[in-house]
Amino acid sequence: MKLKTAIYGAVFALTLSGFQADVDEYHNNWPNWRGPNADGVSLNGTPPTEWSETKNIKWKMPIPGKGIGTPVVWGDQIFITTAIELDQKATEEAIKKLKKTSPTFVKVLGMSGTTENFLQFVVYSINRKNGEINWKKVVREQYPHEGINDNGSWASASCVTDGEHVVASFGSYGIYCFDMSGSLIWEKDLGDMQIINAFGEGTSPVIYNDKLIVVWDHEGQSKIYVFNKKTGDEIWQKDRNEISAWITPIVIQIDGKEQIVVPGDNKSIGYDLENGDAIWTLSGLGEGPVSCPVFDGEMVYLMTGYASTKIVQAVNLKGAKGNLENSKALIWTNDKNTSYVPSPLVKDGKLYYLKGSRAQLSCANAKTGEIYYEAMKPDGMGGAYASPIFANGNIYIVDRRGNCSVIKEGTVFSVIAQNKLNDNFDASPVVVGNDLLLRGYKSLYCIAE
């Protein structure tokens, strides 16, 4: 009996050790655009706080075309996408049709978001050690059916990986699953999205265990899909009563069940991962949600900052079911200085977020909503689409003009370093080990001491 108990104990210890190794490996990578826990936090990274075009640049790799998806990393592989204009010109009829998708106010502002040429949609694997290309896969060459906001791209979504698969979504131009060596496993075409005002597409896919989640919110019939990540086979889909949105969902575990949290214009919903049933709903975010939710193990934080609609909702999801409006689950709200494009991050009981689409940082008590400081702007910082991240006790904020401020984590606003690169940045920073990855319009930078 003692021998049997010892054997069981040894097996359990080995299993637990293997599980911990898997967890550690996951946290030592950046598998999706918001990091290992989808909250903007690097638990183990130790990146530099100072750099320039001539200081602490490990390597710099020019990237053709335009893509604004955040890099994702597993081991020594970095995955990004881009859309490259080809010399092949579309027919006059196709060009005319595309230009009609751009509303008058976009044209007046010079934000044409159109092209006369075919696009080449490309997935790259780049070596994290030296910036060299491991592999390049052209997945489609096509003339787009719809324009984009000039601030956007036809390759706006980030890839997602689990160390065995890497999934790249170009939205209307296909979803593609590769193995780590670049062999195509499966591909899927969900049809054409119709985005309000031709602002462009942007939601990223999510991998959770054996499932791939895709949110498809647009002016047609919006949906949420769950596929088998290994085969691409559909597990379930649900219609959504939503219009265009650009939110990447998160998957959380609470009350012994996994659920997909999807903020929305009409309602934010927690879906049962297994069957798509709605566990809870909550209205109040309003028009144009872009900012993605974050979760601290008990509370989820939903946020928008579009036009006059500014709100953050802190929701305790333990035991939450049904319509949560006016319920005790809605712990606190705030309607000032909330994020529009950038997503918040949550760390050590503090919620950090930018104001609108500007590099102005606020910090609040995540449990109570008490504001420690709000809309603080580091000198020289401008507009920001990139989301802030946390690493090694610091908050990193990147603006659209290549400025990056490093701010000490805590309840007091304290800038410890300011840096500048000669590029424009909309993708969010990424930290893996000692490396800070910044994806600009022209180049991908790896910054390390």
Number of domains: 1
What's the count of strands? 34
Stated plainly, the CATH topology is called Methylamine Dehydrogenase, Chain H
Which CATH architecture would you pick?
A: 7 Propeller
Determine the structural class based on helices, strands and strand pairing.
mainly beta
Shape: globular
Helix count equals: 3
The portion of residues assigned to helices is under 10%
Spans of at least 5 consecutive residues with low confidence: 1-5, 7-21
Q: How many angstroms does the end-to-end distance come to?
A: 56 Å
Mean pLDDT across residues: 92
* CATH H-tier superfamily: YVTN repeat-like/Quinoprotein amine dehydrogenase
Can you characterise this structure?
The chain is mainly beta and 449 residues long. The chain has a single domain (31-447), classed as Methylamine Dehydrogenase, Chain H. It contains 3 helices and 34 strands. The protein has helices at residues 2-27, 92-100, 104-108, and strands at residues 41-42, 57-62, 72-74, 77-89, 117-127, 133-142, 160-161, 165-169, 175-179, 184-188, 206-208, 211-216, 222-228, 234-240, 250-254, 257-262, 268-272, 278-282, 294-295, 299-304, 311-316, 322-323, 330-334, 345-347, 350-354, 361-365, 371-376, 389-391, 394-398, 403-408, 415-420, 430-432, 435-439, 443-447. The radius of gyration is 22 Å and the shape is globular. Residues 1-5 and 7-21 have low confidence and may be disordered.
